[in-house]
Amino acid sequence: MAPIDFRTKINWQRRFRSPQGEKSEHEILRIFESDRGRIINSPAIRRLQQKTQVFPLERNAAVRTRLTHSMEVQQVGRYIAKEILSRLKEQRLLETYGLDELTGPFESIVEMACLMHDIGNPPFGHFGEAAINDWFKQRLFPSDAISQPQSDDRCIVRDLRLREGEEALNELRRKVRQDLCHFEGNAQGIRMVHTLMRMNLTWAQVGCILKYTRPAWWMGEPPASHSYLMKKPGYYLSEEAYIERLRKELSLTPNGRFPLTWIMEAADDISYCVADLEDAVEKRIFSVEELYQHLYEAWGNHEKGSLFAQVVENAWEKSRSNTLSRSTEDQFFMYLRVNTLNKLVPYAASRFIDNLPAIYSGEFNHALLEDDSDFSQLLELYKSVAVRHVFSHPDVEQLELQGYRVIGGLLEIYRPLLQLSTDEFCELVEKERVRRLPIETRLFHKLSTRHRLAYVEAISKIERDSAQWPVLEYYYRCRLIQDYISGMTDLYAWDEYRKLMAVE
Q: How far is it between the farthest Cα atoms of the chain?
C-alpha cells in the first residue's frame, strides 16, 4: 500500500487558469480561501434557504431549511476535522502524513464540502428526485427489447428507441436512458459546481463532494468491495470526462473516494438526526415529553451508564432541573445536541484515524459511523424514531405527495420541448423564436440562460454528421429540462406550477 501523504490529495490546482509552481503554506491557504468565497457567494447556496429539509413549503422560520441544515453540518465537519488534526498532532503524525503545512486547507475543504453537500437537491427533497426519475422512466421506454414506434400518449422519446442492426448505438441509447432515469442530488451537485455554475473550484474541493463513485448509467449490482461507496449514482454521463480528470488529479482509484469525504458524510449524519427530531417538536408533531418516551422505548436496554443514559437521559434530567432561563424544549435539545456531539465527534475522529490507510486509498467501504458500536446504535435510534413518528406523519406525507405532483406536473408542462425533433429544437435554440412553434417558443423562453448555455456548449462538442448526434443531442436536451426544474426552490416550483396550470 502506498505511503500516506496528503500533499498528493490536497490538490490546490484548478481545471481552468490553474496557478503554477510551488506554493507556500500561506499561498495555498489563500487559494482555498478563494474557494470559500466562490462557494458562499454562489446563488446555489442562497437557494438552499427555500429548499426543503424535512417539511416542504414551511413558513415557520425556526424550522430548518437546506441552508440552515448545511450551516450546522459545516460546523460539525469543522469540529471533526479539528479533532482529527489535534489527535494526529498529539501522535506526532502531522508531518509523517504531509499535513504539517496543510491543516488550514484540510479544515477548509471539509467545511465547504459540508456547506455544499445538498446544492444538487431538487425541490421537495427525495420526493423531488423520485418524481423526476419516475416521469422519465415512464416515458423513455427503458426496456432492452427492440422498440417500434408506439402510440402511447406518454411517449416523448425520439432517438432513444433501440433499433435492429445498430448495436453500438443501442448501447449508447441504453446508457443514456439509464443515466436520465437516475437523477440524484449528489450527482447533480457535481454537475452544478462544474458545468452549470462553472465555479472552477480546486480539484480537492470538488473531490470532497463526490460522495458516491458510481456513474448514473451503471447497470447491475456494484462490486462487493465497493457496495457502500457505489450504492447511489455519484455523477452523470455529462460529467464523465471531468470525473476522469478529477480522479487523475487526486490519485483516486476507479471506484475510490476522496479521503475527506468520509468526514463530510459523518458530519451530515450527526447533524440531521437530532435536527429532524427538533423540527418535529417545533412543528408540534409530538411534544418533547413524547419524544423522550419514543427514544426511551426504542432504545430497549437501559443499563446504568449506557450511552443512552449519558446522552439522552442526561439531557432530559438537566432540562427538567433548570427551566428558569429557557424553556424545557430549548434546554432538552441544547443538551441533547451537545451530548451527542461530544460522543459522536471523537468517535468519528477515531474511526477516521484507525482506518486511515483504507480511507486514504479511497477503499474504505463503510461510513465512519456505520458499525456495531453503541455510537452507531445511537444514530440509528434517532433515525428510526424520525422514520416512525415524523416522516410517516400525515401532514408530512401530504406535503411530500403534493411536491411529487408539482414536479411531475412541471415536467409534463415542459414535455412539448422534448417532443420536438432534433432539427426543430436546434432551430428554436438558434433563433429563439419560431412562429410555427408558439407553445415551445414560450416554454423555451422560460428556461434559465445558464442552463441553456450549458446545453449549447455540450452539443457544440458533438459532430453533427456522426451517428451519435441525435442520441446525444436528445440526452443534453433532457438534461436541460432536468437542470431547470431541479434548480427551482420549493416555493418557486409551487408558484410556477400553479401559474402554468392556471389555478390562480
A: 79
Check if the beta carbon of residue 382 is closer than 8 Å to that of residue 341.
no
Amino acid at 159: D
- pLDDT average, residue stretch 73-93: 98
Burial 349-358 (b: 16+ CB within 10 A, else e): bebbeeebee
pLDDT band at 159 (very low <50, low <70, confident <90, very high): low
256 touches 361 (CB < 8 A): yes
- CA dist 55 and 180 (Å) reads 27
The three cell numbers of residue 182 are: 437516475
> Hey, is 233 helix, strand or coil?
strand
What residues does 452 pair with on adjacent strands? Answer: none
Element (H, E) at 215: strand 214-215
| Rg value, the chain, Cα | 24
Contact indicator for 139, 161 with CB cutoff of 8 Å: no
| Distance between CA atoms of residues 120 and 114, nearest Å | 13
**Range with the poorest average pLDDT among 97-106, 233-242, 378-387, 395-404:** 395-404
Burial 391-408 (b: 16+ CB within 10 A, else e): eebeebeebbeebbebbb
Three cell numbers at 106? 484540510
Residue 333's alpha-carbon distances to 101, 191, 397, in angstroms, are 38, 36, 25
How many CB atoms lie under 10 A from the CB of residue 313? 17
C-alpha cell at 359: 480511507
**CA 412 – CA 444 distance, rounded (Å):** 14
Identify whether the C-beta of residue 210 lies closer than 8 Å to the C-beta of residue 190.
yes
Q: What is the rounded CA–CA span in Å between residue 141 and residue 106? A: 45
Cell triple for residue 366?
Answer: 463503510
Active site members: 69, 117-118, 268, 442
Report whether 274 contacts 266 (CB < 8 A).
no
pTM for the structure as a whole: 0.94
Q: Cα separation of 283 and 285, whole Å?
A: 6
* pLDDT digit string, tens, across residues 9-30: 999 999 887 666 678 888 999 9
Residue 434 phi/psi, 5° resolution?
A: -125, 115
CA dist., res. 312 & res. 292, Å (int):
8
Measured between alpha carbons, how far is 202 from 23 in angstroms, rounded to an integer? 14
Length of the chain: 504
Identity at 193, one-letter amino acid code: V
All three cell numbers of 140: 423513455
Helices within 41-160 (DSSP H only): 43-47, 66-90, 103-116, 125-139
